[in-house]
Design a protein that fits this description.
832 residues, alpha+beta, Isoleucyl-tRNA Synthetase, Domain 1, Rossmann fold, Methionyl-trna Synthetase, domain 2, 5 domains, four-stranded parallel beta sheet, four-stranded antiparallel beta sheet, 28 helices, 29 strands, globular, binds ligand ANZ, binds zinc ion, ATP-binding, aminoacyl-tRNA deacylase activity, aminoacyl-trna synthetase, EC 6.1.1.4
Length: 832
C-alpha cells in the first residue's frame, strides 16, 4: 500500500479551496447556518486548545455545507488588550505592530490547519473601522440612558501616580498588593468611571435563560447565580434625628429578633453621622482605603444613635460596619444574630444580645445543615428545638416564629408575606449583578468618545468626528493616553472652549459583545452592521468556545443583543447564540492542563509538520466528545495517522484495480456490506448532528475495517467496495478534509469533496430495532448523568453496557436481526 505526502497535499488543497471560494458566503444568502468559534485573542501563538475549538466548528461547518446548507463560518481577531501593551514595552515596539505580526502568524497557522473560513469577512477589533462602532454604540447606549458615570474603587500606585488594572497588581512579600512596575504597595482610590447599566436588564437576562435550551445547563446555572436574584422586602426604620432609613432583607420573618442596625460606610446617613462624630468619620476613612478582599465581618463602630424597630417599637443600636456593602440593597440592614451567621459573629465581637425568633419544625430540622440529620435518623428524634442553641451558632433556616408578639406560630414563609403589609414595607427584588464598569486606564483599547469641558461637563464626541483614533504609542509610566498632550486637548464640541478628551479606553469585552453581528456585513461604513441581514442571519446557530467565558463574555453579548434589539438596530433577535458548546481541555500526556510553560506542551505546528493537519484534526475529534477533557497521546496520533494512510492505500488500490474483471460475486455478502455502508452513514449523520464526532468517527472506522476485509475476498464486488469507500470519504471529509479530497480525486469523484453531497442517511429498515436500542441507551445514560450528577458519561456507559447487551440480544433473537445488531454493537460506545 502506498501513502500520501501530507506536506504536499495539504497546502495544495488549501489553495484550491481558496481559489474556488468554497467557504465564501454571499451577502444575499437567505438564512445561512451560522457556525462560530469564539474568536481568538491575538497572542500570536496557536495552542492545542485553539486547534480543538476551531476543528470542532470547522468540521461542523463542512458537514452542514455538504448537506446542502449555506454556511456562514467567519473568523476574526480579538486584538485589543493589555498583553499587547506589555509585549510592546518589553520588545521596544508598539502594540499595533506587535498585534499585526501576531495576526499574520496566526492566519498562517489557521490556514495550515485547513480551517475553512470566509476570509472576506475577517474582522480585527483594533482597527478604527471596527472600534469606531464601539464608540458609536456607546453613544446610542448613552441616549438610551444605559451609560452612567459612577464612582468606583480603583487600584492606585502612589509612586507611578497611575491607576492600575487588576492584572497590573502583583502579590508582594507577605501577600501585599504591589505595583507590577515599581513594587510599591498600592492604594485604593475612588474615581469616576463609565458604566453600562446592565442591571437594567437583570430580570430579562435571568428569565430568558430558561428558553436557552441549546445551552449547557451548567452555563445557564452559572449565569443565574451571577445575576443572583433575591426576593425580599424593604422596610423603613426610623433613626431619630436622621429620619427613615430603608433596609433590604430576605428574612422579614426575623424582624422581632433584630438586636442591632448596620449602615454601610458609604451610606448617606453614615456620612451624615460622621459629620459630628470623629470615631465614625475615622472608621469610614479607614474602610474606604481597605482592601475589599480581606473583609473582616466583625469590623464596625457604634454610632451612638438608635433605630426604632417598627415591629417592636424598641430602639436598637446603630453601627457602621464594613460587611454592609454600599451598593447592595439599600446599604442598610437590621441584624439578627440568632439567624444570620455574619450578624452572629458581629454580635459576639461587640457583645450584642442574641434573640431567637424562629424555631425549627420537624421539616426544617430534617433538611437543616446545622443539625446532624443522618439520612436514616428519624425526623422526630432530631426535631427537638432544644437542640438548637442560637447563643452558640446562628440558626439560618426557616421554621416557626417564637417571641414574635401576636405572630408566634406562623411559618417563616407566612410571616414574610404578612409582615410586608403589617410594617408598611414593600416587596423588593435585588440582584447580585452589578453594572458593568468599562473604563480601563490603558492605551490599547477603544477610546471612549467623551470630552470633558470645565463649562459644559461631559460632552459626547459628535458622530461625524468618529472614530476617535488612538494617538501614537509612547512608553510612559502611566496611561500613554494621559501623556498624549496634543491628542488630549480639543475644542469642546458644545461651547468651543478648551477641553480634554477622556483618556480611558473601553474594556475589551465591549469588542466581543457584538462582533458576531459585524460578520454579517464586515465592511459596512454607515452602521455597525446591516440591520436586515443581521436580523435574517442571527442568531448564531452553533457557538463553540471555552467554559471560562460562561459568565462575562456570554452575559455581555446577551445584554448587547437585547439592547440592540430594543433600539431597533436588529429586529426580533433577543438572544445571540441559539446553541452553545463548551469544549473541554486538551491535557498533556501527564493529565495536567497542557501549557507552554510546563513541559507537557505539544505545539500544533510541530504536529502539522510531522503528521499533517488531518492527523491532528482526526486525533482530536476521535479522542473525546467536545465537552470532555482528554489527554494528548502520541499513540492516538499515530493511530489516526495510520488510519488515514490505510484509507488512502485502499483507495489507491481500488483506483488501479480492474473493476469489471470478476463475475464470482457473492450477492448476499455484497448486500450485507452495502447495508453496513448505509447504516454507518446514517449513524454518523446522527452523531454529527449531536456534536458527537467521536462516535461518528467510530462508525467510520468500523466501516473501513469491514471494507478492507471485504476487499480482500475473492467474491467481493469492487463496485460495492468503491461505493463504501466513497461514503467513508464523505463522512470523513469534515474532519480530515485534505486526505478526503485526495482520495476523492483518486476515485474520480465529481468536483470538490468539500462541495460534494452528503451521503443518503436513511437507516435500512431492518436496522430499526438495533438503532432504537442505541438511542434508548443513550437516553438512559443521559438520564443517569442528569440524576446522579456524575460528570463522566464514559464510566456510566460502561456500567449500563452489559445490561444493554442483554437487552439487545433478547430483541435480536425476537427480531431475527442477530448479526446486524451484533455488528452494530461491535462498535458500540463502550470502547474508549
Ligand atoms: C435581616 C436578616 C435576618 C437577613 C436573617 C438575613 C438573615 P442573602 O445572604 O442572599 O440572603 N443585606 C442586606 N443588605 C446588605 C448589604 N448592603 N450588604 C450586606 N448584606 C446585606 O442576602 C440577603 C441578606 O443580606 C439580607 O437579609 C440582609 O440581611 C443582608 F436572619 O436581613 B437579612
Ligand atoms: Zn464646553
Amino acid at each position: 500500500e502506498r501513502g500520501f505526502d501530507h506536506a504536499e497535499i495539504e497546502p495544495r488543497w488549501q489553495r484550491t479551496w481558496d481559489e474556488e471560494g468554497v467557504f465564501r458566503i454571499p451577502d444575499d444568502a437567505e438564512d445561512p447556518e451560522y457556525v462560530l468559534a469564539m474568536f481568538p485573542y491575538t497572542s500570536g501563538e496557536l495552542h492545542m486548545g485553539h486547534v480543538r475549538n476551531y476543528t470542532i466548528t470547522d468540521a461542523y461547518a463542512r458537514f452542514e455545507r455538504m448537506r446542502g446548507e449555506e454556511v456562514l463560518h467567519p473568523m476574526g481577531w480579538d486584538s485589543f488588550g493589555l498583553p499587547a501593551e506589555n509585549a510592546a514595552n518589553e520588545r521596544d515596539t508598539n502594540p499595533r505592530d506587535w498585534t499585526m505580526d501576531c495576526i499574520d502568524s496566526m492566519t498562517e497557522q489557521f490556514e495550515s490547519m485547513g480551517f475553512g473560513y470566509d476570509w472576506e469577512r475577517e474582522i480585527t477589533t483594533c482597527e478604527p473601522e471596527y472600534y469606531r462602532w464601539n464608540q458609536w454604540l456607546f453613544k446610542r447606549f448613552r441616549e438610551e440612558g444605559l451609560v452612567e458615570r459612577q464612582a468606583a474603587e480603583l487600584n492606585w500606585c502612589p509612586s507611578c501616580e497611575t491607576v492600575l488594572a487588576d492584572e497590573q497588581v502583583e502579590e508582594g512579600p507577605g501577600g501585599a498588593e504591589i505595583c507590577w512596575r515599581c513594587d510599591t504597595p498600592i492604594d485604593h482610590r475612588e474615581m469616576d468611571q463609565w458604566f453600562l447599566t446592565i442591571t437594567d436588564y437583570a430580570e430579562e437576562l435571568l428569565e430568558a435563560l430558561d428558553g436557552l435550551e441549546g445551552w449547557p445547563n451548567n452555563v445557564r446555572e452559572m449565569q443565574r447565580n451571577w445575576i443572583g436574584r433575591q426576593e425580599g422586602a424593604s422596610v423603613a426604620f426610623e433613626i431619630p434625628g436622621y429620619g427613615d432609613v430603608d433596609i433590604f432583607t430576605t428574612r422579614l420573618d426575623t424582624i422581632y429578633g433584630a438586636t442591632f442596625f448596620s449602615l454601610a460606610p458609604g451610606h448617606p446617613v453614615a456620612q451624615e453621622i460622621a459629620e459630628d462624630n470623629d470615631a465614625v468619620a475615622e472608621y469610614i476613612r479607614e474602610a474606604e482605603g481597605a482592601d475589599e478582599d480581606e473583609l473582616d465581618v466583625t469590623s464596625g463602630v457604634f454610632t451612638g444613635e438608635y433605630a426604632v424597630n417598627p415591629a417592636t417599637g424598641e430602639e436598637i443600636p446603630v453601627y457602621v460596619a464594613d460587611y454592609v456593602l454600599t451598593d447592595v440593597g439599600t446599604g442598610a440592614l437590621y441584624a439578627v444574630p440568632a439567624h444570620d451567621e455574619r450578624d452572629h459573629e458581629f454580635a459576639e465581637a461587640h457583645d450584642i444580645d442574641i434573640v431567637q425568633v424562629v424555631e425549627p419544625t420537624e421539616d426544617t430540622v430534617e433538611h437543616s445543615s446545622t443539625s446532624h440529620a443522618d439520612a436514616d435518623a428519624s425526623a422526630d428524634a432530631d426535631a427537638d428545638p432544644e437542640d438548637v442553641d442560637v447563643q452558640e451558632v446562628a440558626y439560618p433556616e426557616d421554621g416557626r416564629l417564637v417571641d414574635s408578639g401576636e405572630f408566634d406560630g406562623l411559618t417563616s414563609e407566612e410571616a414574610r408575606e404578612q409582615f410586608v403589609e403589617e410594617f408598611d414595607g414593600e416587596h423588593r427584588t435585588e440582584y447580585n449583578l452589578r453594572d458593568w464598569g468599562i473604563s480601563r486606564q490603558r492605551y490599547w483599547g477603544t477610546p471612549i468618545p467623551m470630552i470633558h469641558c470645565e463649562e459644559c461637563g461631559h460632552v459626547e464626541v459628535p458622530d461625524e468626528d468618529l472614530p476617535v483614533e488612538l494617538p501614537e504609542f509612547v512608553q510612559t509610566t502611566g496611561n500613554p493616553l494621559d501623556a498624549a498632550e496634543e491628542w488630549k486637548s480639543v475644542e469642546c464640541p458644545s461651547c468651543g472652549g478648551p477641553a480634554e478628551r477622556e483618556t480611558d479606553t473601553m474594556d475589551t469585552f465591549v469588542d466581543s459583545s457584538w462582533y458576531f453581528l459585524r460578520f454579517c456585513s464586515p465592511d459596512l461604513d454607515s452602521a455597525p452592521f446591516d440591520a436586515g441581514r443581521a436580523s435574517d442571519w442571527m442568531p448564531v446557530d452553533r457557538y463553540v468556545g471555552g467554559i471560562e467565558h460562561a459568565v462575562m463574555h456570554l452575559l455581555y453579548a446577551r445584554f448587547f443583543t437585547k439592547v440592540l434589539d430594543d433600539i431597533d438596530l436588529v429586529e426580533g433577535v433577543r438572544e445571540p447564540f441559539a446553541n452553545l458548546t463548551n469544549q473541554g481541555m486538551v491535557l498533556g500526556e501527564d493529565g495536567n492542563k497542557m501549557s507552554k510553560s510546563g513541559d507537557n506542551g505539544v505545539s500544533p505546528t510541530e504536529i502539522v509538520d510531522e503528521y499533517g493537519a488531518d492527523t491532528a484534526r482526526l486525533f482530536i475529534m476521535e479522542a473525546a466528545q467536545p465537552e470532555k477533557d482528554f489527554a494528548w497521546s502520541p499513540e492516538g496520533v499515530q493511530s489516526a495517522h495510520q488510519f488515514l494512510q490505510n484509507l488512502y492505500g485502499l483507495a489507491a488500490d481500488l483506483a488501479e484495480s480492474d473493476r469489471d474483471a470478476d463475475a464470482d460475486v457473492d450477492d448476499s455478502i455484497a448486500a450485507y456490506v452495502d447495508r453496513e455502508t448505509d447504516a454507518a452513514a446514517a449513524r454518523a449523520t446522527e452523531e454529527f448532528e449531536d456534536f458527537r464526532f467521536n462516535h461518528a468517527l467510530q462508525a467510520v472506522r468500523d466501516l473501513v475495517s469491514l471494507l478492507r476485509r471485504y476487499h480482500e475476498r475473492p467474491d467481493a464486488d469492487p463496485a460495492v467496495v468503491e461505493r463504501g469507500v466513497r461514503t467513508v470519504v464523505k463522512l470523513l471529509g469534515p474532519v480530515a478534509p485534505h486526505v478526503g479530497e485526495e482520495v476523492w480525486s483518486l476515485l474520480d469523484g465529481e468536483g470538490l469533496l468539500a462541495e460534494a453531497e452528503w451521503p443518503d442517511a436513511t437507516l435500512p429498515e431492518d436496522y430499526d430495532v438495533a438503532s432504537r436500542l442505541v438511542e434508548d441507551t443513550r437516553e438512559d445514560v443521559r438520564d443517569i448523568v442528569e440524576t446522579v450528577g456524575i460528570e463522566d458519561p464514559e464510566r456510566i456507559t460502561l456500567a449500563v453496557a452489559p445490561e444493554w447487551k442483554t437487552r439487545a440480544h433478547e430483541l435480536a433473537r425476537e427480531s431475527d436481526a442477530d448479526n446486524l445488531i451484533g455488528d452494530l454493537m461491535g462498535h458500540d460506545e463502550i470502547r474508549s
